[in-house]
Write a structure and sequence with these properties.
Rossmann fold, seven-stranded parallel β-sheet, 13 strands, 12% strand, globular, transmembrane, UDP-glucuronosyltransferase, UDP_glucos_trans
């Protein structure tokens, strides 16, 4: 009996010891102020905290009632939105020196004497701002990305783009492209990489050398090298949310990590409104980033209201200040709504969406047909995916009419094929060996144990090596040299055979 007790105690102490050994000191520097991004962050941070890791979480949107091993540092300075097409192109929110200087909490952090085993940052939106954190703290570098369909993000991943079938975030097509679409895709690839390498990163390097100084900064690598030196990339994508592409070993998909089995509860009014919807509910939301009042100006909001009035379905509409008041019995409006709870409700028949990434993830996860109204950025690509798989239709919000909106909504509601295709995507989404949060935590702990084993050499190569430009240049120059030598040899041979063997001039015969 005593021996058994000792064995149990020894086993318990061993487990505690292993847990203590595996418990890491983690810095999560995620200052992006967009709520849709923080859905992903919070799920990841929560999963790591549940495993006993000690986390310093720098965020503008703290988690309420966080666990004791989660230390949250609120980033009070709200970062300016990316200004200018150039900044959006290269996914940088820090396009001028003032933004580097304003975030005082960053300066305090990078000059501190804290110790971390692992650093989590968002790429590529804040990559130039946070790339040097892992160098400063000599820590493992983990990046969280929203997508992997931009030339610059593929550069970071060490995965060369193939524009013949890997579509850019700017594309409005699927992976079966025509010649013209492939031509545009190729142009996007070349122009984005060139712009990010030779213009944006040059400016960011100057800003970093001016404002991001700390002890030992003189020996750090170039900014592009620091950005590429990532041990693990967690991407908020999944096969059900995109197309089948090859990926580097250190790229792991965690799409839908924020999807929960217990969505935030509805208000009593909303729940009653949806429960009593005999013919079902249409959910209309343009997300948190798009300015709905601007998008639905020039009478577009009234068009939507007129269409909703004609329907027998009830409508739940996420509105914003600046939109006209709605007093229809079948329309419920609110500035905030629990989107997952609405999409999970049995009476939800249709989601009218702008096609943002998180909205796309959620509508697929809950198998709800869609009508997409994309506005900018990757929304066109996301909505195109939904139409390609057959779970919805697209509207051009610039040219909507009451008849076109009514026909599109009615088509998706009455044609059962859209709901069947949505159910198929839902099944694909949930068919995984483990939950996304468990997979994310597993791979983070994996690189804690094994460091850089997943990182391919391509992630550390300069672009001219990655794309074999030096090899192509060598082959081209060698070919030109060989052709030049052959030309000289042929000319010499011709001269030799065109002269008499005795060296005397040949006399012409006179008749």
């Amino acid at each position: 009996m005593k021996n058994n007790f000792r064995e149990h105690v020894s086993t318990l102490l061993l487990i505690i010891g292993i847990q203590t050994t595996l418990s890491a000191k983690i810095l999560a520097f995620l200052p992006i102020p967009w709520r849709s991004h923080h859905f992903v962050y919070r799920s990841l941070i929560g999963g790591l905290a549940a495993r006993g890791h000690q986390i310093d979480f720098y965020t503008p949107l703290p988690i309420e009632n966080g666990p004791p091993n989660l230390n949250q540092i609120q980033v009070k300075d709200r970062l300016d939105d990316a200004s200018g097409e150039r900044s959006l192109t290269c996914f940088t929110l820090f396009s001028d020196a003032t933004n580097f200087d304003r975030l005082q909490v960053y300066t305090e952090l990078i000059n501190s004497d804290k110790k971390y085993d692992l650093v989590i940052t968002e790429y590529p939106l804040a990559s130039e701002f946070s790339a040097y954190l892992s160098h400063k703290f000599k820590a493992i570098n983990v990046a969280v990305m929203g997508y992997l369909d931009h030339p610059w993000t593929n550069e970071i991943a060490g995965l060369p783009d193939n524009p013949s079938y890997m579509i850019s975030y700017q594309a409005k097509t699927n992976d079966r492209m025509s010649f013209g679409e492939r031509l545009f895709n190729t142009y996007t690839l070349v122009s984005m990489i060139a712009l990010c390498y030779w213009e944006t990163m040059t400016r960011q390097q100057e800003f970093a050398d001016t404002f991001l100084k700390y002890e030992g900064w003189e020996g750090r690598p170039k900014l592009t090298e620091a950005i590429s030196d990532v041990d693990l990339i967690l991407v908020n994508t999944h096969l059900s949310m995109g197309y089948a592409y090859p990926k580097a070993p250190h790229v792991k998909e965690i799409g839908g990590i924020h999807i929960t089995t217990t969505p935030e509860p509805m208000s009593k009014e909303l729940k009653r409104f949806m429960d009593e919807a005999t013919h079902g509910v249409i959910y209309f939301s343009l997300g948190s980033v798009v300015d709905a009042s601007e998008m639905l100006k020039d009478g577009k909001a009234q068009i939507m209201i007129n269409v909703f009035k004609r329907l027998k379905h009830r409508v739940v509409w996420k509105t914003q200040p600046g939109l006209p008041e709605v007093n229809e019995k079948n329309i419920l409006t609110s500035h905030w709504l629990p989107q997952q709870a609405i999409l999970a409700h049995k009476n939800t028949k249709l989601f009218i969406t702008h096609g943002g990434l998180q909205s796309m993830v959620e509508t697929i996860a809950y198998g709800v047909p869609t009508v997409g109204m994309p506005v900018f950025f990757d929304q066109f690509k996301d909505v195109k995916l939904m139409t390609t798989v057959g779970m919805g239709l697209q509207l051009n919000y610039n040219n909507i009419t009451e008849d076109s909106v009514y026909w599109t909504i009615n088509e998706v509601l009455t044609n059962p094929s859209y709901r069947l295709k949505a159910a198929k995507q839902k099944a694909l989404f949930h068919d995984r060996p483990m939950k996304p949060v468990d997979e994310a935590v597993y791979w983070i702990e994996y690189v804690l144990r094994h460091d850089k084993v997943l990182q391919p050499a391509s992630a550390r190569m300069p672009f001219y090596q990655l794309y074999l430009l030096d090899v192509l240049a060598f082959i081209l120059l060698s070919s030109l040299l060989i052709l030049y030598i052959l030309k000289k040899i042929i000319r010499a041979v011709r001269l030799i055979f065109s002269e008499p063997s005795d060296g005397c001039p040949v006399k012409k015969k006179v008749e």
